[in-house]
Amino acid sequence: MKDFWEQRYSEKGWAYGTEPNQFLSTQAARLKPGMQALVVGDGEGRNGVWLAQQGLDVLSVDYSEAGLRKARELAIAKGTRVNTECVDLTHWRWPVAAFDVVVSVYLHFAPDVRTTMHRAMLQALKPGGVLILEAFNKNQLQYKSGGPPVVAMLFSSDELRADFSGAQIDVLEEAVAELQEGKYHVGPGAVIRLVLTRPGEI
Fold first, then answer.
1. What pTM was estimated for this model as a whole?
2. Mind listing the domains of the chain with CATH numbers?
3. Is CB count within 10 Å lower at the N or C end of the chain?
4. What is the DSSP string of 99-145?
5. pLDDT single digits (tens) 74-102
6. Above 80 in pLDDT, residue 201?
7. Within the chain, what is the greatest distance between any pair of CA atoms?
8. Are 70 and 9 contacting, i.e. CB atoms less than 8 angstroms apart?
């Protein structure tokens, strides 16, 4: 899988564009300059760089060094900076209670690690911290706009509710969105969106 992402992010241009995910950008009111943000699976950096432009202190992590190299290039082009770390999230020593914001955009895990990874995202938040997630839901197989071609790697509301149990769920919705994100996310897509707040105890 690492080779797949290295190859994709080594292609000319930006695979998913240079603008932030649209749903993430609608959550701007939740963000404040100086917040510590973790962007998991940030690829070529479009979301991390946008957060940095909002004044956040950003750590972008991804499996692909080629992607993160582009993330640093994009940050320079946009007049900002992001910190990057090339990691396999399934073996990473996740920070605990370290971030005000965690962002996950189209990051899909195999079923045997999905819950563990989602719990790690929740635990990486400080109490009162916010997680913003958009991914594909299980109806995405009928569309041609991206995502894993395996239904078990697509998300449902019930799965996310269980994975993030104990959190305060502010938004959890499934919808069909018109995607315009680079050359690999184009056209209608079946998405799931989640915004939650970490309480004091989980």
1. 0.96
2. 2-197 (3.40.50.150)
3. N
4. EEEEEEES----HHHHHHHHHHHHHHEEEEEEEEEEEEBTTGGGSSS
5. 999 999 999 999 999 999 999 999 999 99
6. no
7. 45
8. yes
